Amino acid sequence: MRSDDSDRNLAIFSDFENVALGVRDAKYPTFDIGLILERLLVKGNVVVKKAYCDWDRYKEHKATMHEAAFELIEIPHTRQSGKNSADIRMVVDALDLCYTKDHIDTFVIISGDSDFSPLVSKLRENAKLVIGVGVKNSTSDLLIKNCDEFLFYDDLIKESTSKRSTRKSSRKKSGSQKAAESTTSKKNEAEGDKQDEGIDLVVETADALIKERGDSVFGSMVKQTLKRRHPGFSESYYGFRSFGDLLEEAQSRGIVTMELDERSGGYVIRSEVTVDNKRPVLLSVDDDAEVLKLIEKTLSKLDIEVLTASSGKEGLAFLKDRELDVVISDMRMPHMSGSEFLKEVSTHQPHCYRIVLTSDVHLDDAKSAINEGGVSRYLDIPWKDDELRRVVSEGIRIAALAKDNDELFQLTQAQNAELHTLNAELEDRVSRRTEALEHANGMLSNALSELEETNELMVDLVANIAAMPNPESDKSRRKLRLALAIGAELGLDEEDLLHLKYATRLHKLGWVGVPKSITAKPRSLLSEQERVEFEKHTTYAEAVLFSIPRFRKASEIIGSQHEQFNGHGFPQKRVGEGIPLGSRILAVTRDYYEWMDGAIEEAQLTPAEAVARIVAERDNAYDAGVVKAFQIVVRTIDELDPSLNETSVRTVSLLPGMRLARDLITNEGVVLLAKGTTLTENTIGSLINLELRSDKKLKIYVLKEEPEKNAAA
What we know:
InterPro entries: CheY-like_superfamily, Cyclic_di-GMP/3'3'-cGAMP_PDE, HD_GYP_dom, NYN, OST-HTH/LOTUS_dom, Sig_transdc_resp-reg_receiver
Distance between the termini: 91 Å
Strand order of the largest sheet: 3-2-1-4-5-6
CATH architecture of the largest domain: Orthogonal Bundle
Number of domains: 5
Radius of gyration: 38 Å
Structural class: alpha/beta
GO biological process, one term: phosphorelay signal transduction system
Largest sheet: 6 strands, parallel
Helix content: 40-55%
CATH superfamily of the largest domain: Hypothetical protein af1432
GO molecular function, one term: RNA nuclease activity
Keywords: Coiled coil, Phosphoprotein
Shape: elongated
Protein name: HupR1 protein
C-alpha cells in the first residue's frame, strides 16, 4: 500500500493527429481524451497539458480538448514537413520542461510514433518517469519498450465498458431491499439513486487506485484522487454528511471492506467489486417466486451476482448473454423440466456447476438429471442456509478450476501446433533469410561509401544554413581543425572524433530558431529576456538532431556545450565529468574564437589574449585537462591557423598595402572583398563611407606582417 506522498507531477504531451488517426484506423467511434485523463489522474497531479496538431483539420475535437484544459499548439500542416514540425516542437517543449522544471517528475507521451523513442531515452536519462499512451495496432514496438510504462487506449475503452456494467450490477438490490423500496416515496428513491451514484464514484476510484498501487489504499488517498478526477465532487451532494459516512455505507452494502490504520488513524480500504466485472454469476431457475426470493436472500452474504428466472425458457436467454458459474434449478417445472434445462446448460456452458433443488426426487428423474443434465449436486427443500452457501461457494471454485484447466489445455494445444509448424518451416526460413542477408550485405557494402559522402554533404549543407544569420566564412573549418586536434591530444578514438566533428560543424544549428537581433549581440550585453531566448538554441538543435541515429551523440554534445565545469552553465547545470567530453572540448574551441570575434564581450581579443582568457577559466568554466590539451595544440598548429597571424583592425586604422586575412562580409552576409585582397586608398575610403551610411561597424581582419612591410616601404 502506498501513501499520499507517492503522488507525482505529470506533464502530458499529445501528438494529437497520430493518436486520432490510430483511433480512426482501429474503428473506434471517436477519440475520448477523458479516458486517458481519468487513468493518469490516479497516478498524480497533471500540471501541464499540451496537444500538437493542425487544429483547422481537427476542429471537431477542439471543444473537447479545451474542456479538458489542454493548451492547443497550432502546427500548420504541409505535405513535406507538417508532421516533422509537430514532432520537433513537441520534443523542444518537452526537453525545455525537463531541463527547467525539476518538480515535474513524470512525462506522458500520447503517440505511437517511433520518432519519439530518442526523446523518451533522453527524459529517462534525466531521471524522469515516462508513460506512453497509444492505440495498439498503430504504436511502434520500439516506443513501447522504451517507456517505463505504456497504456493502450484499447484497454481503457474495454475498462470503461466494463465499469458501466459493474455499476449496474453493484446497484442491484436483494429481494428484501426491493420489498422495502416498494414502500418508499419517490423522493427517497431519488435520494437513493444519488447515494448509489456517489458510492459508484468512490468504488470506481478505489478500484483504479488498488489496480495502480497495491491491494489496499488509504481513504484520504481515494478522496484526493476523486477530487482530481471530479473537481466538483462533494459527499453532501450525494446525501452523506461526511466522506467517512459514504465509505461506511459502501461497506454496509458489501462493496468495500475497511479497517482502521493504527499509525495514521485513518481508514484503509480494500475494494470487493473489481472494475473488470469478474464477480461470480449464479442463475436460479424456479417457477415458484417465493423460492427465488429465499435463494437470493440466503446468498446475499456471498460476493456474487444472482440472476433469477421463473422458467427454463427464461433461463435459456441467460445462457446466450451471460457466462455463468453456478446454476440452481428446480427439478419439476412446467413446459421444460429441470433435467431438460440442465441438459441445455451442459451443452452451452459445460464448465458451469449444476445444482438441482427439489422436495421429492423420483428415480427416473434422478437418472435423467445425472445422465442428461450432468448434475453436480442435489439439495433438498427446505435447505439449510449454511449448507446452500457452502455448496454454492464450492461450485464457484470448481467451475473456476474447470475453466482454468480448459484454457490451459487449449493454450497447450495451440503452442504444440505452433511449435510443429515452426519446426517444419525452420530450415526453409533459415535458408531464405541467409540468402536475403547475403544479398542485403552486398547492397549495404555498395551503398555505404555513397552514404558517407551524402552524410558529409548533408552536414555541410545544414551547417551552412545554420550560419546564414551570422556568416562565419572559413572560420568553421578552423574551429573544426582545432576541436579535432584537441580530441586527438586527449586520446579520443575514431568514432568519438567523428561525433565531435559533426557537433563542431553543427553547434550553431539552434541559432536558426533564435532572433538574429539576439545572436548578433555579444553575450555580455544580452538582457535577461534575451538571455533566456538565446539559451534555448541548444535545446532546438538537440531536438532536431537526436531523432537521427547517426547524429544522436552529436546532439548530446551540442545540447551540453554551454554547461560549465563548475556547474554554473545551462541548460541542466551539469558538473565536471558529468558533462560529455565532446561538449567540454567544443566549449573551449567555440569560446576561443568567440573571444576573438567579440561574441562574448564587445572587445575583440587577439589570439594570445583569447588563450589567456581560456586558461584563466580552467576548473571554472572549462575542464583543466581540456585546457591543457588546447594550449599544446594551439602552439603546434600556429602555422596552420591563420587566425594566429591576423589582427582585427577598425576602418580608420587601415593602411594601403594591408592584405585581408579573411573575407570581408557585411552583417547581412554579403561578401564585399575576398580574402587576400590588398587594400588601396580608394578601397579604404569606400569602406569608411559604407560604415558611415549604414551606421554598422565592419569586422576587418588583416595579416599581421602587412603593417610592417608597409612601414618599411
